[in-house]
Specification:
This protein is mainly beta and 264 residues long. The chain has two helices and 13 strands, in the order βββββββββββββαα. The longest helix has 9 residues. It is rod-shaped.
């Protein structure tokens, strides 16, 4: 007996089996949906006797059913440079100034808009400036993302020693899951740029705005924010120069070591 399976009249399964008379057989047929677009499909199974045996009744040799093929759909919700230790369930304060040679922690939120729990979602974070585009900062993997949920992951941008002074755009891309066709929302860009400057240049005559030189305004800024950390009412991420989640003597020392240094 020959058993055949069709999806929209396209053969996807064929197998010859030997069956004694008067018995029933459950036969699994595997359909690879990886090449199918989302939508409804008719599956048809056909059983025919192998010649020279003649089947006197063909009316019950064919059965059909309907299936629906759906794929995943993930989206990248936001990209925020900040510091370690922030509460990701609240508004994440943005770090906009990074001393060259130091880093920032980049938070990326990814959501699952599809109909399946997704696993091992790959996310890549990049920096770009006026001369270079989409330079990889780091990659991370989301092990599981249930339907209708979102998760915030983070990576640290540490390799800034060789970068030029100036403004940098941080972006991220959530790589498509199996069969995903709507990828227009898989990438995102941080709302503000990050300025790579002289380590310790975190303030100026305008409080909290760098001016390209490290001086007493910067040291005073760190001292005024001494011992603050994420969750403090006056937490300012830019003052956490070494990106360890607290403003302390290490940050003040960086301003002193770079005193009178300018961006050149």
């Amino acid at each position: 007996m020959m058993i055949s399976g069709y999806c929209e009249n396209v053969l996807f399964y064929s197998n010859s089996v030997i069956m004694p008379r008067g018995v029933e057989l459950i036969l699994p047929m595997s359909l690879n949906t990886g090449t199918l677009a989302e939508g409804n499909y008719t599956i048809l199974a056909n059983a025919t006797l192998t010649p020279p045996i003649v089947d006197g009744d063909l009316s019950d040799n064919v059965l059909s059913c309907e299936i629906r093929v759906e794929y995943g759909d993930i989206s990248l919700i936001n990209v925020i440079p900040s510091t370690p230790g922030v509460n990701i369930t609240q508004l994440i304060p943005t770090k906009t100034v990074v001393g060259r040679g130091y880093g920032t922690t980049v938070y990326v939120t990814v959501g699952n808009k599809g109909n399946f729990t997704e696993h091992n979602i790959q996310v890549t974070i990049y920096w770009s400036n006026g001369t270079s585009l989409n330079q990889v900062i780091n990659d991370t993997t989301i092990s599981e993302l249930p339907i209708g949920t979102s998760v915030t992951v983070n990576v640290t941008w540490e390799q800034t020693f060789s970068l030029s002074y100036g403004n940098y755009t941080i972006s991220a891309y959530a790589w498509p899951v199996l069969g995903e066709s709507n990828t227009a929302d898989n990438d995102g860009v941080a709302a503000v740029q990050v300025h790579i400057g002289v380590p310790g240049d975190v303030s100026s005559a305008q409080f909290g705005v760098p001016d390209g030189i490290v001086n007493m305004r910067d040291a005073s800024y760190c001292i005024l924010l001494f011992n603050t950390k994420p969750g403090s009412p006056n937490w300012k991420p830019n003052a956490d120069i070494n990106n360890d989640g607290i403003v302390n003597m290490r940050d003040t020392a960086i301003t002193i070591l770079n005193f009178n240094h300018r961006e050149t």
